[in-house]
Specification:
Order of helices and strands of chain A: HHHHHHHHHHHHHH
CATH class of the domain at 96-259 and 281-306 in chain A: Mainly Alpha
Number of helices of chain B: 12
Helix content of chain A: over 70%
Number of strands of chain B: 0
Helix content of chain B: over 70%
Strand content of chain B: under 5%
Largest sheet of chain B: none
Shape of chain B: elongated
Structural class of chain A: mainly alpha
Radius of gyration of chain A: 24 Å
Distance between the termini of chain A: 10 Å
CATH architecture of the domain at 73-245 in chain B: Orthogonal Bundle
Radius of gyration of chain B: 22 Å
Largest sheet of chain A: none
Number of strands of chain A: 0
Number of helices of chain A: 14
CATH topology of the domain at 96-259 and 281-306 in chain A: MetI-like fold
CATH topology of the domain at 73-245 in chain B: MetI-like fold
Strand content of chain A: under 5%
Shape of chain A: flat
Oligomer: heterodimer
Chain lengths: 307, 289
Amino acid sequence: MIRFIAGRLLSLVPVVLGVSFVAFLVLQLSPGDPAQLMLGENATAEGVAQLRREYALDQPLPIQFGAFLLAALHGDFGRSFATRTAVAPELLRRFGNTVELASLAFGLALLLGVPLGIVAAVRRNSLFDHAIRLVVLVFVSVPVFWLGILLIYLFAVTLRWLPSTGHDKLESFVLPTLSLSAYSLAILVRMTRASMLEVLAQDYLRTARAKGLRQRVVITRHAFKNALIPIITITGLQVGFLMTGAVLVETVFAWPGIGRYLVDALFGRDYPVIRACIFLFSVIFLLVNLVVDLLYAVIDPRIRMSG
Amino acid sequence: MRVRPPRARGVIRDAVERFRGDRGALLGLVVIVAVVALAALAPIVSPYDPVEQQIRLRGQGPSTEHVLGLDEVGRDELSRVLYGARVTVGGAVAAVAAAGILGVGAGLLSGSAHRRVDNVLMRIADGMLAFPSIVLAILAVVFIGPGLLSAIAAVAIADVPGYARLTRGQTLTVREQEFVRAAVAVGATPVRVALRHVLPNTIAPIIVYSSLQIGSAIIRLASLSFLGFGAQPPEPEWGAMLNAAQQWLGTAPHISIVPGAAIVTVVVAFNLVGDGLRDALDPRTRVTR
């Protein structure tokens, strides 16, 4: 198992380097001297020269890239062109807010989606199953941002039950979380249902029933465990969606997360911030996919052997 | 001597039969045909000019003259949604078509050509898959600049590796089948084998994948425009319309509802057809439905 993990980690190194290089290139688009832009009009010549040395901006590209990697490893992403302050602390603060939102949303999706998918599979073609399938179809077809707008219209503008913005009170979490979780919920229900149906058709399930096990034990212990792999795959794939979704939901609800930070940076051509966001998104994406790979191996020992 | 690929009429007839029995898929197909017709005929069927402003009537709700009301600067909402179908649905279809042509080409080459070519192409695909799709979109915005074309490019680029992998997998399977070996044995050129024998037999899953991708592409394209990185005003694009409508949610909610409802309707239709095609073309998946 340790060999397996080490192998996967090692194979990640060139990918992380490649992804970092693309992120690194973004700053090269800066119109003018990045050091000057980071410090502003009123910066002294010495200050600019020092910053330039610090980030090796006066060196050839490969060395600049090395300096960028080294700085990134230390959690240093330079200064924002817009605020002239260090990117990293702001990035971290906002990242926390996004993780909060995304984990709430995905947690809710898991909590509801997996049981609903199981019940739909067990009661296949029942009224419940048809209703669930209709809801899934609608939820996968609704743009996240429009769902957010609808929820604001219904619960904030018309009923005045919940706030449409803010991040301080518990109530302000409700609408963003619901908007972001709908798509993941639908995908999880669909995947769990399909995966359960496949497993339920297997011979060993008939055997389990035939030897007199109770339905609940058959479903939870024998069927669900074997239906887990596709569910975990989907969980891994959802990370990419959650990132895009967070950017949209944060825009609709003025949520102070990394998504809004990125959108504002894109409009303001704040390249150090854009670069840091690309780096962070990509590295997290790779790490989550690594964890998913490792989870496969934990659940299904056959993968460990062949991998 | 030329070897003809096996005629697949029986398979196709079976598939059509199954598709016709799927009420959801048929409904989806009807909606898509209607939307495409309305989009194509937008200049004829639209009651008003989509960019002409009647500023005095701005934000007015539905009435007999303006069935879906007027938008934030007094443009006829129905006309804008009809023209918007051209931009949003047309753009999404263009993105998927571009991704399909590039991806299928690369996948076919990867599965047919030398091992080394295969390796290079698949590493490129892996590299593209290493980026979350939002990052690909950001890169398009950063390097090309905001606009409808860069949004379409961002949507297309994200889909290329999926097509390439799918086609490569199909190609590797089909290549092992006897009729392909027979074609190779009688001296068909590699290009002919790939295009005439392998490609037609990989097409079914590609069609299914495409119909499901179009729905997702519509959402992704509208999302980018909603953020302000896609179609720019005054272009009638559904996502961009929703962006402009947002601050009028309290006073003119209809302009926040109509374009979104249009998106959901079309995406549901494409998803229904995609699911129907999948069941029709690959009867094995029916078991798990």
